[in-house]
Amino acid sequence: MSELIKPEELIENMGVEGLCKSAEDYFQSIPDTTPLLTKPFHTLYEGPLLLCKLGLLLSGLNLGKAMTVLDFGAGSCWLSRFLNELSCATISVDPSATALKIGENLFHDVPVISGSIAPPRFLVFDGHKIELEDNSVDRIICFDAFHHVPNPDEIMAEFYRVLKPGGVAGFSEVGPVHSTSPGSQHEMRTYGVLENNIVMEHINEVGKKLGFSEPYFKFFAHPDGRVSYPEYLRIARKGKYARDIRRYLTHSMTDCPIFFLTKGQFQGDSRSHEGLVHEISTNQREFQVDAGQSFDMDINIQNSGSSTWLHQNINDIGVVNLGIHLY
Question: Which residues are registered as beta bridge partners of 308?
């Protein structure tokens, strides 16, 4: 039996540049890219799992229309395309130029049904620096990609740099012993692809030093789980969980953490409905004017919610205006 490959040894032997090259070699070696393009519907087994995780990840990001989203480790850019369907502007980042070219072809061959709100961008990543300006993206999405990163502390610093204040980075990841699984060992041994472990204590420690707030999590249960009707009644009617169910949920969240890091304090805006509250008043409620005559009225409007009101944006999406309804 072969000795286990340790992620830290693979990083030391190949380095960041070598692992970026192995990612490019991996995508170049794929004879049929169809499964990459049909994600998350590429297999009946993995599809439900990806859909469960993706739904929670999108929910936790607090997305709004016309937000700029960096899709890190985008691969064939299937997720970037779906984000365009949600009216987000995307920047797909990956160390493999071949993968990004596959993604460009995907956008060309299967156009966004609703039309892209902005032309999608594709950036080849050198493993160190994301070629974007400071404070330039609203959200970062990292779907099963961060455990391939050999220098996570450096990349988290890059995430912090390019995120706007109050922006969110969302991750769907693996657990603390991922590298020892047979599948991970096969990937590292066969393709030289890093299958690292994600340890949340380390993520939290590094994040705090950079200025991220404490991570928050989405509650996750693997879709393979099921309960009987009596178990359902005990849970739904009495709030009682059997020990094996609690153990199952613990394993699900340990092995598949879905977590989020916020740059400082979260700040919503009017591209999303959450946090939108206002107060409006006027000193004079009744007016009597002749036909064709103009009149003036003073209106006091206060943003009493928690979200910022935008005054300009792409296609005026999320821009707050005063509307008048004539009866």
Answer: 269
Type and span of the H or E element at 59: helix 46-60
- Taking the CA of residue 88 as centre, how many other CA atoms within 13 Å lie in the half-sphere pointing to its CB? 25
- Give the burial string for 28-60 (b: 16+ CB within 10 Å, else e): eeeeeeeebbebbeeeeeeeeebebbbebbbeb
DSSP, residue by residue, 177-207: TGGGSHHHHHHHHHH--------HHHHHHHH
CA distance 116 to 81: 9
Q: What integer pLDDT is reported at residue 35 of this predicted model?
A: 92
Task: Give me 43's structure tokens.
Answer: 């297999």
What would the two tokens of residue 142 be? 């990292």
pTM: 0.91
Q: Which two tokens stand for residue 311?
A: 């005054």
Q: What's the rounded Cα separation, in Å, for the pair 35 and 282?
A: 60
Please write the tens of the pLDDT for every residue from 185-209: 999 999 999 999 999 999 999 999 9
Which residues have CB under 8 Å from 223's CB, separation 6+?
48, 49, 52
**Pairwise CA distance, residues 131 & 149, whole Å:** 17
Answer yes or no: are the C-beta atoms of 145 and 191 closer than 8 Å: no
Other Cβ atoms closer than 10 A to 90: 31
Say whether 11 sits in a helix, a strand or coil.
helix
Instruction: Give the span between the Cα atoms of 127 and 133, in whole angstroms.
Output: 17
Return the residue matching tokens 């330039």.
Answer: 136
